[in-house]
Amino acid sequence: MDPAWGNASQNGTLSDSPGGAILISFIYSVVCLVGLCGNSMVIYVILRYAKMKTATNIYILNLAIADELLMLSVPFLVTSTLLHHWPFGALLCRLVLSVDAINMFTSVYCLTVLSVDRYIAVVHPIKAARYRRPTVAKVINTGVWLLSLIIIMPIVVFSSTAVNSDGTVACNMLMPEPSHRWLVVFVVYTFLMGFLFPVIAICMCYVLIIFKIRVVALKAGWEQRKRSERKITLMVMTVVMVFVVCWMPFYVVQLVNIFVELEDATLSQLSVILGYANSCANPILYGFLSDNFKRSFQRILCLGWMENAMEEPIDYYATALKSRAYSVEDFQPDTLESESAYRNGTCTSRVTTL
After folding, report:
1. What whole-number distance in Å separates Cα of residue 194 and Cα of residue 177?
2. Which of 225-239, 275-289, 312-326 shows the lowest per-residue confidence on average (mean pLDDT)?
């Protein structure tokens, strides 16, 4: 079997040559190191600075925690890749695959929640103050984890070890008979719940956001706002495209293996690695594209000299009022997030839309 989870540790889907196993293990290790460092910085920044504890950043914190825990399963993949064998036993096999799966689904749903949060902030600014609060965000994050736990129950039930014909042990999902039919249902189920439905929701949110920004920019008529529109549109498309690029190959390979029965071990490994690499991209997409995260990271890395070269965030509220195309009520401060910029050891208020 080549299910969505466990195929990276299954004997037969690993590179047979020692050089190939070392190369794959090295790539896994780099992904793990970058992912752990990046997400740890995001977690530290949000927990360290009180002004960073906005509703959106609470969702980002949950995403970073899920990605961080996802990276912790990589050492097990590296070990099994090098040994061509699962040496950790059946109990740890079930635990690793279950933790890996729940954090994978949690990461996907965190991205979806972030997209809905952006949709509410931009398209429904009047209602934003009611829903976009840190306490509400914490409740929603708890719901995301519970939903992910329910969805991955088949993985918890069917994960176990099996002895291969050569005597080695593989950690995988052992489906009941008829195994192929169960496997088809499982792969389609994970594709729908872990990729297709979240991507549809994310795309719908961002299409509505882009439409709203275009309408506002055209009515405002300010060149500065048009430049801002292009910048936000590019960022939104980058977020969606990186997510799709990282995870679509994984699910395509799984579906092809099931319905076409054309299995390629190297392709399967690369698709798994690319999926894990999305956890490395998230701190960049949701952290480094925020001016306040940039400044906080620079403080951690002692790069304060770069601070003056950063682009100033745009105050859409002030721009829209100057244009007189909208009333004050159309641009309530609830649409904006007050964050903090640190200069010369003092904290000054900044306003940014993302």
Report:
1. 25
2. 312-326
